[in-house]
Amino acid sequence: MGTRCEGLRDSLSPIAYYEEYSHFRLDCLKIDDNKELSMSANEDLAKERARCDFNVSEITNILDGGIERTKQRKKIESIALSNGKCCDVTPEETLGPKERYENAIRKSCLYTKIVKDQVLTLTGLEVLGSNSSVLRRTADAFFKDISPFLLHLGMFVPTIMGQGTPEQQSYWLPRALDFQIIGTYAQTELGHGTFIRGLETTATYDPDTEEFVIHSPRLTSYKWWAGGLGKTSNYCIVVAQLYTQGKCYGIHPFIVQIRDEDTHMPLPGVRVGEIGPRMGFNTADNGFLGFDHYRIPRNHMLMKNSQVLKDGTYVKVASHSKLTYGTMVFVRVMLVNEVAFNLAKAATIAVRYSAVRRQSEKISGEPEPQIIDYVTQQHKLFVCIATAHALQLSSNWLWKTFSAVLADMRGGNTENLPELHALSSCLKALSTSDSAALIEQCRLACGGHGYMLSSNLPLLYSFVTATRTYEGDYTVLLLQTARFLIKAWEQAESGNPVTPTVSYMEEAVVGNKYKWNGSAEGIIKAAYYVAAGKISSSVTSIRKRMKNGKAFEDAWELTGVQLVAAAEAHCRAVICDVYRKETVRLTANSSPNVKTVMDQLNMLYLSHWALERTGDLLRYTSTTEDDIISCQQRYEELLAAIRPNAVGLVDAFDFPDEILQSTLGAYDGRVYERLMEEALKSPLNAEPVNRSFHQYLKPLMQGKL
Ligand SMILES: CCCCCCCCCCCCCCCCCCCCCC(=O)SCCNC(=O)CCNC(=O)[C@H](O)C(C)(C)COP(=O)(O)OP(=O)(O)OC[C@H]1O[C@@H](n2cnc3c(N)ncnc32)[C@H](O)[C@@H]1OP(=O)(O)O
Ligand SMILES: Cc1cc2nc3c(=O)[nH]c(=O)nc-3n(C[C@H](O)[C@H](O)[C@H](O)COP(=O)(O)OP(=O)(O)OC[C@H]3O[C@@H](n4cnc5c(N)ncnc54)[C@H](O)[C@@H]3O)c2cc1C
Fold first, then answer.
1. Superfamily for 156-317?
2. Which residue positions are annotated as catalytic (predicted)?
3. Taking the model in full, what pTM does it have?
């Protein structure tokens, strides 16, 4: 689809037909007065770019984290993209399941080789740390869906880093980072995903042989879902209940070899396969895995946080009981960045398309306007750009918080872990939920063409909607944050100090009502008051239920709806606050127009959420109807102010066409030409008459069936 792919022939894809029937394709392209469809860029998009009043690359640099990081990213992207084999001639979505998987493996190996040979020599291992989002982003030029290697780099390697002893790391990491072995993370089972204390796979220590016996006692204990498990991985992290000296010590991580390193056959005692078609992730060979008394050496238990000695003695090393959950916290932090990136892609596609697409008449007889000129379209799309910024900046902030807590923990201090868990849980929940909803909004904003897989919007949605479930379901994670909030509220009530992200409670517990003012800081404060009001209401409900004889657990359960809403409101206030502060900080030295447009986007986000939550504002603050009316007016003014810069703003996300992979969103705006070009790649267009005509249709129509 991108220019670098023109004329490419993919050895694995069934495209012989394409050459054979090229005359048919050429005929279709000569539909306009016998002229071939235009190869030149769309004029409307060119005009949009000419009217943009700020320096696009300044915003790109802000989003990348500085000019040097932009340069580094572009260097990595250009190495990977100049390879020329990054996309398919036959769209991957038109292939059958086996061909798609094989093609995904081919491309994963190709991309891995480029990273190993060319990118790592440029950046060193740093690329796997702070630059991993660049690797992830560049990978999208290779995969429209998901690489079967995602879990290897996304969870297998991080688990060894986070849960292995230094000796275990020095043994496993070089092999894993060099792709001599490929692994995944098998925690979820058929019977349990959320409640991990209820996992049923067992790892029983046998001191006679100094081995663990891994066993799946029943069907519900089969591992289910792990990405890359079905066909790709030869190793995996298995999370299992540890038994030693007759006692169960709860779940622990083990490195388990599941396939022969040479033949790739499953090892005796291992039952492994792929789980079947799903809504997305169809190139990720998500798998199932069962064990029949399968033995692994003692030192394959990852022993940084707890150990089993040769004689079977269990030794707790870690100072906090939940450190074995560390990989999940890490991935939740990474996911905020991941969904911000995917939302930015969807916004780019929908905004560019809306500048190209003309539909209906605003005034009878006048030319049809670009659909981006409808205020309702602006309402659908500009909040997507603003949310992509909000989540990107929140994710950078969360990453810094995560790194600081990690550094503390290296020195044995786990004091800030509960706050990190509460923050990463709610930010993961809200960012994934918002992004999925807004990507779908982008798809709907593109009308019928948004439904085409070649727009890439359906694939983006199917990928991002899964992030709301995996790595901790939305509701479950918000309830985790609620636990923290209720405890903090009780601390604040009794006059004890609370941690920074809940310091607003100290003022709110006194019972003041907040008086609305429409400034950014005013809206943020109102959002905190709404959160405090919801937390307070939840506390009241729990206490009332307990007073009426309920046990705490029952009272908590019955208050669940309010608790989820309270955690959601808290997280929204945190995002609003961080987004504001980071915008002000990062634009302090920017040119005036960049400052203005970033401020407008930020205000748009704040006003949008104030208007979405008018009921809460009226209930928990002293906001009046007049305040709401003026907020609505401000919101509409912001839509108009942002309109001329909309295309510039999405250009600032700086996605090469190869990464965007969209007929509707390419930089040149040749929307209709690309739609037709992609349609002609459909296998059904391989021949003028399909054989089913002779087999079924003709006999039916001629009464000979
Ligand atoms: C070519 C290469 C190309 C590629 C290139 C790419 C290169 C770059 C790579 C970059 C990659 C980026 C993208 C990655 C994508 C990855 C995809 C991932 C896919 C999906 C993976 C998965 O999907 S994998 C499974 C995740 N599965 C869960 O996510 C289970 C949720 N379920 C729970 O997580 C627990 O079940 C749950 C609810 C906490 C209760 O746990 P529980 O029952 O034990 O605990 P309780 O509720 O009783 O709570 C008791 C007390 O523990 C406290 N606490 C609980 N957790 C705590 C914690 N973590 N830290 C601290 N404290 C914690 C709590 O706050 C209470 O504290 P207190 O008592 O003080 O109130
Ligand atoms: C695409 C994809 C990839 C995945 N990859 C992996 C992987 O690589 N490795 C891996 O180990 N796992 C993986 N998973 C599994 C994933 O982590 C789990 O599906 C997820 O944690 C949710 O658990 P569950 O499926 O058991 O849902 P359930 O817990 O059964 O949830 C079902 C419903 O019950 C509700 N619910 C559950 N518990 C509570 C509660 N305590 N209070 C209130 N409501 C509750 C939920 O909110 C939800 O509405 C993947 C899943 C998907 C979809």
1. Butyryl-CoA Dehydrogenase, subunit A, domain 2 (2.40.110.10)
2. 471
3. 0.95
